[in-house]
Amino acid sequence: MSSNSAQDWMNQWQALAQRYWDGWKSQGVVPPAGFGRADANAPWQAALDQWAQLFGKSQQQSDLVDRVTANAKSYVALMQSMLNSSLGQGGDAGAAAWTEALRNGFNIPGMDPALWNNPLGANFRDMAGQGAKGFEQLMAEFGRAGGPFKQEILSTLGMPAFGLAREHQERWQALGAALVDYQEQTNRYNALILKSSQQGFERFQSKLAEREEPGRQLESVRAVYDLWIDAAEEAYAEIALSDEFRKVYGAMVNAQMRVRSLIQGEIEQQTRQLGMPTRSELQGVQKSVQELRRTFRNNQDNGGSELAGEIAALRAEVAALKRQLAAADTQPAKAAPEKPAADKSAAAAPAKKTKR
Amino acid sequence: MGPIRIEPQKALDEALKLQQKLSAGAQTLRSLDPVTFGVTAKEAVYKDDKVTLYRFRGERAPTQKTPLLICYALVNTPYMVDLQDDRSLVKNLLAQGQDVYLIDWGYPDGSDKYLTLDDYINGYLRRCVDFLRKSHGVEAINLLGICQGGAFSLCFSAIYPEKVKNLVTMVTPVDFHTPDNMLSHWVRELDVDLFVDTLGNIPADLMNYCYLTLKPLRLNQQKYVGLVDILDNKTELENFLRMEKWIFDSPDQAGEAFRQFIKDFYQGNKLLKGGLQIGEKKVDLKNISSPVLNIFAEQDHLVPPAASRALKDAVGSPDYSQIAFKGGHIGIYVSSRAQREVPPAIHDWLAKRS
């Protein structure tokens, strides 16, 4: 890129960046300090936080707005990084330089440094929200309940268990060991996610290199972004379907379940001592209720129709008997005035019937 | 020549367009009413604990005498088949003349933790089928099973072949061990007993998260970046929100049923390999004697096509047909192509066997 064209680029960039912020200002979004000069290095994605605040938190769309904001911020940061890179290098930059620009684009200022160069890890964390919660969030929530135990538990690790509290201490040591194991398994899992992010960049670079052929250049930020998504998903799928991932994923989930199970056991001990209903007692009741429900349904299914038939037959017989009794009651009464003449026949017939 | 050639004007146009869409979205999003799904008129005709059997009412009376029962999966609400007026498998089947029923499994709570697959298949499903057989005065009904509900329908048809006149399966896993089945791959090392004993019922939020992690960047990032493009379109935004509501409005899974489904289907692959038992009933797919129509989606990331295709050689029925739909696991119900292709295909296939 010649110096003139670079200067043209810069002039156009600043003018258009100013338009970008003017547009936001008309929506009541106030650019952060430094934006008045349409600085190409200013964080464009900062506007999205203010955009999200326009909705408050009480509307049905709030979760959607959170998701849009989180992802649009990544996208805008990527856009800015790509454009800054373009500003510096123009169209001559190779696949490696563009990949570096893309990588930098995902490292948004203010984000957890543990997630730098790890867009997949950041994505996993952003994924949790209304209606979706992963193992990390599940453990964080659970950790609030089990938290009071944690420090004390970890402090007992490695201490010899003896005396009256020996069993108690052994249980806590087992829990402490489970916590340590869970952390190790989580670290192994996170390492694979980071590896996936890195391989995503490598695939992106290789896909990008294919675009160096004349006529195959990418001409929009969205096209670059979509290509990166393809690359990152391919890299993730390969890792997620590997034997290693299968083992690590299973070990991480199993380790968390062991921690939860042991903490549940501790809470159960305490609630029992306080005379409160325990989880296992409640489960016993739930199991009995289900067995009763099942037995009732089976009885209905297996014997229900026979029983219903028998009841219907008995009801019919009772009804017939009632009719006969009624007839027996009324016929003699009618016959009463004629008693001398009709006595035998009138009285005999009902009597016979009722005997039957 | 470099691989990227972004003209400054074009790049900034992109940025400005994004900003304009977000600005418009601020207006559109605030103007939306709460979205709902499940649009076709229906009435509850039978209830069994939390399970409800619904009969749908079309604009005209059904022309088919044999009722068609839709058996959906436990893992989502069944209203994906009746999402909105112009995206409804149910509505289109009614329009074709089918008499459509649907099982809504409800939302299990702690009191349902011990519901087993036996309760679901030999219990609820069988009683719904028996109710329809009795109320319609027929020996057998038409059964349409979807996804996990398709696996249930296969079990049911194998156990009670005399009660199923025709069986339609949609996006139904049969071979759970195909190499591209990511969910199956992940649960293979899971200690399911520990998992269920610890969690009890399996939280819907956790299930949803696991589904999102199948394609994390597409489903949780690219989708929302793409959403910005329609932020100024109220109708499309409502459609999007309706789908979002459905995706994240899921029931928890009854612990015992989940335990058996993971162990026997995902880990043991017993539906295909044999040895599956539901309660006291053995399941052998060779027992299925009714005609079978198997519809699967070619771009299905949840149930890979190969997992469904396996039914062809496993089923006992000599009358087997299959349709490979060009779309994904959800697109098979809601895409415009699905509206055109799927209901008529099901209806025509059933009509020839009525």
UniProtKB/TrEMBL annotation, chain B:
InterPro entries in alphabetical order: AB_hydrolase_1 (IPR000073), AB_hydrolase_fold (IPR029058), PHA/PHB_synthase (IPR051321), PHA_synth_III_C (IPR010125)
Sorted UniProt keywords = Acyltransferase, PHB biosynthesis, Transferase
Q: Tell me the route in metabolism or biology where this protein functions.
A: Biopolymer metabolism; poly-(R)-3-hydroxybutanoate biosynthesis
Instruction: Tell me where in this chain the AB hydrolase-1 domain is found.
Output: 67-333
Q: Which NCBIfam families match?
A: PHA_synth_III_C
User: Which PANTHER family does the record associate with it?
Assistant: POLY(3-HYDROXYALKANOATE) POLYMERASE SUBUNIT PHAC
Q: What is this protein called?
A: Poly(3-hydroxyalkanoate) polymerase subunit PhaC
Q: Which organism is it from?
A: Tahibacter harae
